[in-house]
Amino acid sequence: xxxxxxxxxxxxxxxxxxxxxxxxxxNILIILMSVEVMLNGVNVAFVAVGSYLGDATGGIFAFMVxxxxxxxxxxxxxxxxxxxxxxxxxxxxxxxxxxx
Amino acid sequence: xxxxxxxxxxxxxxxxxxxxxTRRHPMVxxxxxxxxxxxxxxxxxxxxxxxLAAIQVIIYAGAVVVLFxxxxxxxxxxxxxxxxxxxxxxxxxxxxxxxxxILESAVLARRFAMPKAPVSGVGTVEAVGRxxxxxYLLAFEVTSVLLLAAVIGAIALSNKKL
Amino acid sequence: MVSGVLDYLxxxxxxxxxxxxxxxxxxxxxxxxxxxxxxGLPPPGGSHGHPSRGxxxxxxAPGSHGSGASGPHSAPVYRNxxxxxxPGAVGASFVVALLCVLSLAARPxxxxxxxxxxxxxxQSGSFxxxxxxxxxxxSSVMALVVTGVGFLIHVYxxxxxxxxxxxxxxxxxxxxxxxxxxxxxxxxxxxLMFVGWEGVGxxxxxxxxxxYEKQSASDAGKKAFIVNRIGDFGFLLGVFLIxxxxxxxxxxxxxxxxxxxxxxxxxxxGMATAITLLLFLGATGKSAxxxxxxxxxxxxxxxxxxxxxxxxxxxxxxGVYMVARSSALFLLSPDAMSVVAVIxxxxxxxxxxxxxxxxxxxxxxxxxxxSQLGYMFLACGVGAFAAGIFHLMTxxxxxxxxxxxxxxxxxxxxxxxxxxxxxxxxxxxPVTFVTMFAATLAISGIPGLSGFFSKDEILWQSxxxxxxxxxxxxxxxxxxxxxxxxxxxxxxxxxxxxxxxDPEVEKHVHESPWTMTVPLSILAVLSVAGGWxxxxxxxxxxxxxxxxxxxxxxxxxxxxxxxxxxxxxxxxSLEFGLxxxxxxxxxxxxxxxxxxxxxxxxxxxxxxxxxxALYDLVYHKYYVDEIYEWAVVRRVVxxxxxxxxxxxxxxxxxxxxxxxxxxxxxxxRVRRLQAGIVGxxxxxxxxxxVLLVGYILYRSMVx
Amino acid sequence: MTGVPLxxxxxxxxxxxxxxxxxxxxxxxxxxxxxxxxxxxxxxxxAEFLLSLLVVARFESGxxxxxxxxxxxxxxxxxxxYIVGVDGISLWLLMLTTFIMPITILSAYSxxxxxxxxxxxxxxxxxxxxxxVFVATDLFLFYVFWEMxxxxxxxxxxxxxxxxxxxxxxKFFLYTFVGxxxxxVAILALYFHHYAVTGTYTTDLVKLYSLTIPVKMQFWLFAxxxxxxxxxxxxxxxxxxxxDAHTEAPTAGSVILAAVLLKMGTYGFLRFAMALxxxxxxxxxxxxxxxxxxxxxxxxxxxxVQKDVKRLVAYSSVAHLGFVMLGLFALNLQGIEGxxxxxxxxxxxxxxxxxxxxxxxxxxxxxxxxxxxxxSRVLPVFAFCFMVITLSSIGLxxxxxxxxxxxxxxxxxxxxxxxxxxxxTGVIFAAVYMLWMFQRVMYGKVTQEENLRLEDMNGREVAxxxxxxxxxxxxxxxxxxxLRRMDASVAAFVTRxxxxxxxxxxxxxxxxxxxxxYFDSGK
Lengths: 100, 162, 703, 523
Description:
The complex is a heterotetramer of chains A (100), B (162), C (703) and D (523).
Chain A: H1 4-24, H2 28-53, H3 57-87
Chain B: H1 2-22, H2 26-46, H3 50-75, H4 89-110, H5 125-133, H6 137-158
Chain C: H1 2-6, H2 11-40, H3 77-105, E1 114-124, E2 127-135, H4 137-160, H5 167-186, H6 190-208, H7 215-246, H8 251-263, H9 269-286, H10 295-298, H11 304-313, H12 318-325, H13 327-330, H14 334-357, H15 361-381, H16 385-412, H17 430-444, H18 450-464, H19 470-495, H20 503-506, H21 514-529, H22 544-559, H23 572-599, H24 603-610, H25 612-619, H26 624-671, H27 678-701
Antiparallel strand pairs in C: 1-2
Helix pairs in contact in C: 2-3, 2-5, 3-4, 3-5, 4-5, 4-11, 4-16, 4-21, 5-6, 6-7, 6-11, 7-9, 9-12, 9-14, 11-16, 12-16, 14-15, 14-19, 15-16, 15-18, 15-19, 16-17, 16-18, 16-21, 16-22, 17-19, 17-21, 18-19, 18-23, 19-23, 24-25
């Protein structure tokens, strides 16, 4: 029998790996994919806890997260393309015009 | 039995995730991402969330990752121009902080008490559908607006005249 | 019915107000096009024969007002309308006033107080100040003097101002003045009196600054208004004290409540002193007493009829009227009475000495006015309110005449005011000379003329009254001598001797038109005979004037602590002796003037050379203006500049902008955290998450 | 349809809403049609004024209660209501607002040439907010309107202002905003206190009036309200935003600022700070009266040495508002009635002064006194108007300024004799700075060639100046219609103030005031 903490632990590990990808990588594409990993980690927790509590809300939340993830990926990649056209780079450290 | 599958798919998911963040070429990462997504879908099945497992595969693996791969191929950055990773203080600190976060969460998760009687069937198509079209109808509809906005945003952003 | 006429009392101030409105409309509608047409023209240079305005710098001022553009021959119709309307309004109000006074006189002496309330003006809680008029013997004297002399001066002005561009504007101001002055004298309460009080100050400001293009004129007007306001400040505080002490501001209520409040201890002598001294501060402003007299000589920048009307006959006497009106209050406070008497006497002698050395004909008269007003306050200060009012009336006659006469001279001499450039004018201006000479005799106190009776009454009272003292009498008598001296100096320098006139000016010298000479003649008659209503008992008269005023001051005497206003004369022989002395002093003054300015004309300059410091001091009016300028005006202005630039801009705004700058520079530092590197943001996000989860963990472990 | 009674029931709401409707209507007009836009705005503000006359007609002067009340739950869960009403305190301020609006719009016909549509929209929004401030009797609603005033004014200064308009606009905004944030905190504290005492949440002012607030709490709440209102009035030493804002604002903005916005501060004192916290108000009285007197003298002295006409008028406002504060804190009938009347007077005279300055500014594009001189000769009608307004501003009897100042000082003299004596010297200085300015602008010879070619006031300018002049004399000669309608409310205010104060003092342990305890403990 798998205890809920096991799922939560797995969720935390997936999330943490995703975080590492976001903070440690320079490639925007990989950063975006790491974000997906993070979201999956969260979804694991939602689904597991939802099912242990017998409440559909967990599943609904996971569903919502997926929707957001899809939207995020679409917009993020569109941004990436637009950016690449202008700057010819996918290196996040070269994008520092967001300051005054 | 469940424990066995959990350990198996959990290990695949973690392993895939590690590969996603560590591969130099995004195409390789994308392929490992698919692996992770499938493993997570399997975990969903373990928790009787069949519907979610299905859309995890269909939408995530089928649509989102394909979109990634599509973009990777579209912009087709030559190997030589991929960013060169360097360890900076912020990055190292970031990795350490991420480790801390996992640790903290793990400790927290261990303290997490939960009724031991998992109710099966809350993740079935019927259950999710019922919830989705009754209690969460508004949220569901708003989701569609969000997606619409994302579509419009994506189109607007990829317009050449930006 | 007699009271039937009195019901129309409100018409007395209403007529001039109507004049203001009608003339004002004319000024704005009919006169404006002419003025604007002229304004477009460059000012013609030089003066050519239009003796249009009385100012001290004849060579620069007259021409600069475009005097050639509009003479009487080219006068537009509206000027005739104004010339009829303005004096007509005042004349009508004189007639109504006269009828009212006659019907008042028909009443028994005790019933000679008529109050007419028109409507409540300011009412708030227990405070009520109505627009209401009070006609009693005191205000009827004032009303008649104001409307009567005012009417004559209006008529005179029609001639005198005939060359002015802004003809209607002048009469608007003049009518407005009449209205305000009548409000002042007819008001039945202190607050409405204050309306007139400030109103006349405004008109004085406007009329002094009538030639506003001249810097000195607008300066003088401003000075008059501001110095008056200092006095008004006292008046206003006095009104507050009166209201919170008596619970009313109407004259009848206040005076009626005196006995009660005094007996109950609410109205202490200290309170009475405070009230009266504050009121007296107002009076020193309006009536040009030390220390606020400085505006009156400068006020001579205005047209001469204005000087006659406002700065000699009526407005400046408002202070005396107010003190007399408040006599019941003043009598409660011996201290205040002493202050009034001393200030009056000091002003009388002080300004008389300044008058000795002035060379500007109008300034001599101005200082003379200040001095004579001092006399009136001396009278009030010794409790002889009736004598003060008597002198006020006679002074109105002869001083108005003197000013109008000097105006006639100035008019004839193309605006020349310097007596050193006159001489021998007698030949050209016979009517002016005769009338002015009569007025000079009157002011000098020659027996039989009006000034003699009033001045002598004051001197006698200042000696004999319980409030008086020989010292006050001595100062008064000395001032009388000096007055006689400088007045005859003026007459000799102006009318006698050889001509010192500019040849160019001399060619144009002419007697004034009838509109000017007729008022002169009427005033001359009044100057001579005006005193006959108040011949004292010791000279075989029955002092009808004092008797007429007695109801006002008798009730005062009954209410006040000391009933000194009409005290019995202790000794007729003493009175005759003092009378002889004062006449002797006056004759001596005339004699010295004759000696210095007719026989030994080189002597004055010689004397001046012998005591240069003293001469200089007197010639420069004791440098009072300069001292005020240095000690008050400069301090205030410098202090204000300091407040503005150092306190406001540097200190307060320094703090305000300092806070802003502090926030901004802090932001400037914090901004560097936002380097724009996405990794940085991601890391701070992560750090925040770690800390947050850590905190939750900590809380879950440590209950 | 029973039209008139319905209108009566919702008169105040109509007054609040009408300008907004106007603003919405403007949105549909083409932006190039300046003439149409101006006329439509003018008609709306004129209609607003005419409707507000109905308020006076319906007003009962015998009662102190709120009249024409409309009360609708707004956020019932939190006890917040849409409650509006007028009484003798707010009636004339409401009237002043609606009266001054058409005048400023007329003045803006020529002075505003760029972004006319936006300007007019902002003016109309401002009108709604100002009317709302004066009729709201719900704290929350009041606060909403109070803040709503800031925004259009910020833009009026910042967009249509002079050279340093941005600085002035930001300074204006931040200064007043700091105060109002403190007020918000105090409102919340009061709100929760009411809940703690009665168990219900409400922001209804009338209900809050009957609340007895502990002395110590009053002290802090009053302090917060004091800062908010003192910034707005502005009282010395919080006044430095005013000269900048006035100087840089366009003519219409200056007029509104002087005539109405400053009154929001003094009105706030009377309606909220003093009425809600009588004990603290009494405690603060010496401080406030002293600041008011300093403000009177300081404003007058600094005004005297200004080189810019508008700055001079701005500093004179500091002095005039000092008088208003002195009157309000005289805490008796005469002082408060005088204070309210002086608010109106200041609105009329200073508003008119800014219009006068605007007239010559439009012709010469300078406000420096030294650039003028001798204008009397060129502009006789203008000179007449300017003179009357100057006299009104220095409080000459017969003009409105005198009645207000007199009542203020009469009332204050009773309670603060020496303060009032000092304040009365401000009347002297008022004459000094106004007449000196008048002399330098209007008298003397024309020194600048351009000034000879100036045109006198045209029909439109006379048309908007005339009502102001009439009001100057009307209030000066026959102020009874104004005073009579205040009587009941002000008398009730004074009575309630005393009663509340006694009640609160009974409630406090030693029956002593906060300051007394503070100083005692300090010893």
